């Protein structure tokens, strides 16, 4: 072969010739590094969120409406951990798992992220009621109501995402232009509905509710500094202090969530829902999924009970009789 002769493209399926997609060629070191990074993120996401799921499910003291919402968020984040596994298969631009698994990956990622968005909205509502109406919080926000809201959130997310991806579910692989591709088509109407239901409406609710919570927190702090305390309201003030502390902790979760979510939808909006820059698209969707790893990391720093639970789980103390009744708060 002469030095100036064009190199033949490396194909995903060489035996299929021109009907095969082209493989992305990277150096061995870069390919190994990407595999290590994505594998580590996947393992950590699954492991840390599994610890959250086990902790809240096992210890009865943690069976509160707020923690049930954290449990729902952990389940969605746990699912995203497996989406990272599928992303590893696309590092070289080739999909070898078949059209069915391609659709499954898209449905799993869509439902999990949609459910996490809905759960964060519920968390914001929970904190709003706890801080702005503490006297009626116990009656308005009960365990059963929290469970019902979580079930409705997951059911609604599953139904909407399946309808959005209906064409792909009914005919897997019909939108692939070559063998080894994993292409998902979403109708323009579905994209617009997804924008409103998964971004504009939820973000608006979250921002409005947390602005209100922040205003109450500021006024409460001012009242405490000026020592304006009525004896008859002392108990409600104590409730407010604990609820405000919880609101601040969950506020960190919400803010980090918004920082990871917003770039993804901004890229979609600025590109007119068309993927014009693959690199930027991969980065923002990776950032979106990376939030699933950050949530349990935040719990480690902000929740002492989670650190205690992790020690109990890793030391296998949860296997002891009566361990579920332990006071880890």
UniProtKB/TrEMBL annotation:
G-protein coupled receptors family 1 profile domain span: 48-299
Short name of any one Pfam family annotated for the protein: 7tm_1
Keyword Transmembrane: yes
Membrane-topology descriptor: Multi-pass membrane protein
SUPFAM superfamilies membership: Family A G protein-coupled receptor-like (SSF81321)
GO MF term (any one): trace-amine receptor activity
TM stretches of this protein: 32-56, 68-91, 103-125, 195-218, 249-268, 280-302
Keywords: Cell membrane, G-protein coupled receptor, Membrane, Receptor, Transducer, Transmembrane, Transmembrane helix
Claim: Kinase is one of the keywords in the record: no
Subcellular location per the Swiss-Prot or TrEMBL entry: Cell membrane
InterPro entries in the cross-refs: GPCR_Rhodpsn, GPCR_Rhodpsn_7TM, TAAR
Name of the protein in its database record: Trace amine-associated receptor 8a-like
Organism: Gouania willdenowi (Blunt-snouted clingfish)
